[in-house]
């Protein structure tokens, strides 16, 4: 919306005697478009500063060998301080976009300086300590300015550092995990916003998965993490955490059901290992107890359909036919996605309906692939599968529109 559009539309309101000319002037003056102008024109200085920074860093890197060590150190410190000083100067002037961008460049230069210094003095890295130090200025600026760009940069540094640690050193950086948990988790807890809360939840899940992989734990421990995340969503009071924790926990539980169905119905049981029951079962029982108590706390009738995806049916493979256990997972996934759709329709909750449709179509696709792939000609298999999915999706989408047409969604 800009002043030109508002004046044009407002003139019609004046002619229809909805408002007077004086009131139109007051309304137009109330919404100046200078901020929008600043936003659009502010991109150019940001791009210019990025190009200049890349040019400086490229020059230093290409001529690094010709510069004396002390001069290198001094040059990097001057560039870094210049970015920080210029960033704070523009922030004080009210130019938030440019000031924040320059401070971000200062943080990037800080990390580049550590890397280049390590190369100069032949320092050998044995862990992801580089990313620990690199994250510290991002933490400072995040809590000082509360700008989302610092949040995204910090998320990249902590999660990217964890991936680097796994790829280069095959170890899990607990320092980076603590920084992620305290800084990013603490920030979204103090200043909850939807996107940032989801990023924290996804980042936490990625780090938990990396921990399981690096420490060579059984993958079913990650299933337990998903269940714990879902249960934590029942007990936490923040609504944004509640939604993201429960949704991500359900996704992890559903993904495991999907994988277990495929494993158990395709004779991969010899590769399937169970976690140590002495540790796994007590933890599973404790989380189940907390989940049931959480449901009672929310005054929801027992038993809840949401918990069926977290029941450890895989233990049945020890005493029963693995194929039957795998088919049980298929039935559970159908029931789970069906319950989710039914509840979404009942509550007129658009996001829950969409989520349920996606899960239901995934289950249909999985079942179709597993049952029809072996005996059908491949051309007919893909043709019929595509037509069936289109028809099923069309039916579910029409039903959603019919349910939501009177008043739209109550929840997004």
UniProtKB/TrEMBL annotation:
<feature type="transmembrane region" description="Helical">
    <location>
        <begin position="248"/>
        <end position="265"/>
    </location>
</feature>
<feature type="transmembrane region" description="Helical">
    <location>
        <begin position="353"/>
        <end position="373"/>
    </location>
</feature>
<feature type="transmembrane region" description="Helical">
    <location>
        <begin position="379"/>
        <end position="396"/>
    </location>
</feature>
<keyword id="KW-0812">Transmembrane</keyword>
<feature type="transmembrane region" description="Helical">
    <location>
        <begin position="300"/>
        <end position="317"/>
    </location>
</feature>
<keyword id="KW-1133">Transmembrane helix</keyword>
<feature type="transmembrane region" description="Helical">
    <location>
        <begin position="220"/>
        <end position="236"/>
    </location>
</feature>
<feature type="transmembrane region" description="Helical">
    <location>
        <begin position="67"/>
        <end position="86"/>
    </location>
</feature>
<keyword id="KW-0472">Membrane</keyword>
<protein>
    <recommendedName>
        <fullName>DUF2157 domain-containing protein</fullName>
    </recommendedName>
</protein>
<feature type="transmembrane region" description="Helical">
    <location>
        <begin position="98"/>
        <end position="117"/>
    </location>
</feature>
<dbReference type="InterPro" id="IPR018677">
    <property type="entry name" value="DUF2157"/>
</dbReference>
<feature type="transmembrane region" description="Helical">
    <location>
        <begin position="323"/>
        <end position="341"/>
    </location>
</feature>
<feature type="transmembrane region" description="Helical">
    <location>
        <begin position="42"/>
        <end position="61"/>
    </location>
</feature>
<feature type="transmembrane region" description="Helical">
    <location>
        <begin position="149"/>
        <end position="166"/>
    </location>
</feature>
<feature type="transmembrane region" description="Helical">
    <location>
        <begin position="172"/>
        <end position="191"/>
    </location>
</feature>
<feature type="transmembrane region" description="Helical">
    <location>
        <begin position="277"/>
        <end position="293"/>
    </location>
</feature>
<dbReference type="Pfam" id="PF09925">
    <property type="entry name" value="DUF2157"/>
</dbReference>
<feature type="domain" description="DUF2157">
    <location>
        <begin position="11"/>
        <end position="140"/>
    </location>
</feature>
<feature type="transmembrane region" description="Helical">
    <location>
        <begin position="123"/>
        <end position="142"/>
    </location>
</feature>
<feature type="transmembrane region" description="Helical">
    <location>
        <begin position="198"/>
        <end position="214"/>
    </location>
</feature>
């Amino acid at each position: 919306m800009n002043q030109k559009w508002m004046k044009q539309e407002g003139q019609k309101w004046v002619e229809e005697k909805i408002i007077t000319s004086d009131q139109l002037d007051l309304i137009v003056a109330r919404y100046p478009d200078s901020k929008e102008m600043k936003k659009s024109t502010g991109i150019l200085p940001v791009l210019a500063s990025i190009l200049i920074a890349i040019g400086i860093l490229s020059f230093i890197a290409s001529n690094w060998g010709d510069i004396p060590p002390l001069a290198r150190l001094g040059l990097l410190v001057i560039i870094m301080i210049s970015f920080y000083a210029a960033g704070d100067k523009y922030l004080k002037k009210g130019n938030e976009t440019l000031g924040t961008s320059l401070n971000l460049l200062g943080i990037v230069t800080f990390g580049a300086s550590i890397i280049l210094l390590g190369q100069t003095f032949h320092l050998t890295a044995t862990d992801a300590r580089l990313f620990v130090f690199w994250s510290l200025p991002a933490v400072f600026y995040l809590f000082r300015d509360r700008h989302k760009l610092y949040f995204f940069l910090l998320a990249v540094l902590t999660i990217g550092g964890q991936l680097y640690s796994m790829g280069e050193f095959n170890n899990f950086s607990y320092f980076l995990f603590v920084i992620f948990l305290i800084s990013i988790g603490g920030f979204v807890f103090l200043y909850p916003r939807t996107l940032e809360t989801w990023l924290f939840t996804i980042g936490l899940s990625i780090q938990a998965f990396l921990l399981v992989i690096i420490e060579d734990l059984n993958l079913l421990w990650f299933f337990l993490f998903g269940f714990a995340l879902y249960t934590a969503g029942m007990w936490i009071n923040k609504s944004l955490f509640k939604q993201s924790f429960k949704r991500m926990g359900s996704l992890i539980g559903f993904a495991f059901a999907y994988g277990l169905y495929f494993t158990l119905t395709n004779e991969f049981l010899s590769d399937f290992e169970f976690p140590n029951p002495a540790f796994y079962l007590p933890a599973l029982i404790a989380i189940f107890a907390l989940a049931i108590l959480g449901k009672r706390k929310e005054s929801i009738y027992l038993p809840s359909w949401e918990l069926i995806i977290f029941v450890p049916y895989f233990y049945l493979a020890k005493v029963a036919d693995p194929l039957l256990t795998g088919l049980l997972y298929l039935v559970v996934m159908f029931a789970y996605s069906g319950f989710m759709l039914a509840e979404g329709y009942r509550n007129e909750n658009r996001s829950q309906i969409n989520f349920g449709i996606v899960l239901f179509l995934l289950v249909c696709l999985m079942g179709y692939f597993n049952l029809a792939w072996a005996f059908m000609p491949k051309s007919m298999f893909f043709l019929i599968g595509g037509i069936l999915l289109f028809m099923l999706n069309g039916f579910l989408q029409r039903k959603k529109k019919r349910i939501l047409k009177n008043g739209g969604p109550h929840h997004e």
